[in-house]
Amino acid sequence: MKLVVIEGSDGTGTSFHSKALTEKLCVLGYKAQMFHHPRHEQDDDHWSRSLHYALARARIVKNSEKDTILVADRWYMSTSAIALTLPCPLRSRLIDLCHLEGHILPAPLLTVLLDAPDDVLDERIRDGRPQDAWETSHELRGIYRSMIRPECDIVLDTSRPKDEVQAEILALVLGVVGA
């Protein structure tokens, strides 16, 4: 399995670009699969959500075939970003969980961080996307930009036309998986 991670805060286009990348890779003849976190229970707390997502990541890795490109719409780095917005001791437990996942799960061949200016993200979120306070906060965006960014290979601005962003992501992926 070849892992490609698309990270970013709410509104940056992680789901859109992960899906588009997976579809394009399949059209080009690659065996590709997209991972999107399964829905959690509505009343789950942060700890329950994080364990739910960690289990889903473990299962997808276990069940992915060796010749598959797995495109992950967010990975454990998102749990880490959210953890940094929470009070201790929950913050510490979630960060410990992320460190554990980092040692157990395969390392991504490529991690792309998607971002856009705050006014663009605010507008996208207002356009009908579900809102959770921790997903839409400027604090969380700041964490992605300062703490998650160093863990990523590249940052792409998604305020540009979608086709430009898609083409750049595809070129990056083909460069690491072998065109």
Description:
- By secondary structure, the chain is of the alpha/beta class.
- It has a single domain, classed as P-loop containing nucleotide triphosphate hydrolases (Rossmann fold).
- The protein is built from 8 helices and 5 strands; from the N terminus they run E-H-E-H-E-H-H-E-H-H-H-E-H.
- Strand 2 (32-36), helix 2 and strand 3 (69-73) form a beta-alpha-beta unit.
- The longest helix is centred in the first third of the chain and has 18 residues, at 46-63.
- The protein is globular, with a radius of gyration of 16 Å.
- The mean pLDDT is 91.
Provide key terms for this protein.
8 helices, 5 strands, alpha/beta, 15% strand, 53% helix, Rossmann fold, 5-stranded parallel beta sheet, 179 residues
Provide the structure class: alpha/beta
Largest sheet: 5 strands, parallel
So what's the overall shape? globular
Report the top-level CATH class.
Answer: Alpha Beta
* CATH homologous superfamily heading: P-loop containing nucleotide triphosphate hydrolases
Number of domain units = 1
Task: Outline the secondary-structure elements.
Blueprint: E1 2-7, H1 14-27, E2 32-36, H2 46-63, E3 69-73, H3 76-83, H4 90-104, E4 110-115, H5 118-126, H6 133-136, H7 138-148, E5 154-157, H8 162-177
Parallel strand pairs: 1-3, 1-4, 2-3, 4-5
Helix pairs in contact: 1-8, 2-4, 3-4, 3-7
